[in-house]
Amino acid sequence: MEQLDYIKESLDIKDPNITFEKTFDKFFTHREYHAKLDYDPPQCSVCQGKMAKYDFQKPCKIPYLEMAGCKVLIRLKKRRFKCQACGKMAVAKTSLVRENHQIPNIINHKITDKLMSREAMTKIAEDLSVSVSTVYRQLNRFECKTDLTWLPENMSWDEYAFKKGKMSFIAQDFDANKIIAILDGRTQAVIRNHFMRYSHKVSSRVKVITMDMFSPYYDIAKQLFPKAKIVLDRFHIVQHLSRAMNRFRIQIMNQFEHQSYEYKALKRYWKLIQQDSRNLNDKRFYRPTFRMHLTNQEIVQRLLSYSDELRHHYELFQCLLFHFQEKQEKHFFELISDTIKQVHPIFKTVLSTFLKDKEKIINALKLPYSNAKLEATNNLIKVIKRNAFGFRNFENFKKRIYLALNTTKEKTKLVLSRCYTQ
Ligand SMILES: [Zn+2]
What we know:
Layout lengths: L1 H9 L7 E9 L3 E8 L13 E6 L3 E8 L2 E14 L5 E3 L13 H12 L4 H7 L4 H8 L14 E10 L2 E8 L4 E7 L3 H8 L4 H4 L4 E4 L6 H7 L4 E4 L1 H20 L7 H8 L1 H5 L10 E3 L4 E3 L1 H10 L2 H18 L3 H11 L5 H12 L1 H9 L4 H17 L6 H13 L2 H13 L1
Parallel strand pairs: 2-5, 7-10, 10-11
Antiparallel strand pairs: 1-2, 3-5, 4-5, 5-6, 7-8, 8-9, 12-13
Helix pairs in contact: 2-18, 3-4, 8-12, 8-14, 12-13
The structure holds zinc ion.
């Protein structure tokens, strides 16, 4: 008897009506435990009459948590009862699995834990030896509710491709990095319909809306939140500048033969060009491309020596970056006005947009946002993009993001336990 209790305890099964058989089957891939579910006959649910023990059901296969790295399957035989008065049949119930379900609650909890992580749906299914549709079923037990009683003071608006060609609109709480809305589509109508649901009192809480430079949302944001300041996202401003630098480097690079070592060096050390020159590492390492020991600063000097044009634009890029980061808006825009006529068209496009959106950029520089927050937002965007793959269904995509970003573990357990007791 002791041995049997041990199996039960090590599997952490609490239901006193389940007893395990002494032996289990070892397979190459997994172990199979045999157990019975049995207890005294309950009252008939139909006529309240007396029930009697009948036979056992065919064992049901319950995939269970791994034990010591080995996959576990429980073959559970459930007692059947028959009403002596009306003949109604009933099957014994257990806290291990919900009625008419095969997946134990503990596995469903594990799935939820993993849904809050950033793992792919297929990986979750594989790890827990359940089907992908079981993982989706668990995801579908969650609901994304919109809290219409609250909006943050600082909101950021963005759009993401949730799958190829399908864009979705995402509003976040800039300070807490929480998702406020994920909308299927990004048209003005979709956005208007969503935000019109909030009362005027709630809407007027919003003080700042940050968004990307080429955003199509300026007008609608002004209409919906007339009191809010529209601010360009600092992260995006830097990103546009960096992209221009990168595209320009590629143009220069392509002027060289693909076999040349100028081409190879410009291709290999692209990151050093993009990096803020103040942060270049000055440790000396052996560099196979140059066949000598060089610091990152020395590498950049070599790259720039290949082309005066590259040097010229690199210096402009670094100066703009510097003024921007130091919040010297006057210098930033003076430099743009002074150089815009002479720069390459790639830079001209970006710089003229900066001039057009001057006011919104100045707003961005004046607001007291820390870089840490920008960093966090940046990470959030990456997570969303990564999570976005493999979802055909928008609702699932949305639920997954909500679970990954908005729920704390404690909260979810509460929600879940409520689900189970229903
Ligand atoms: Zn009955």
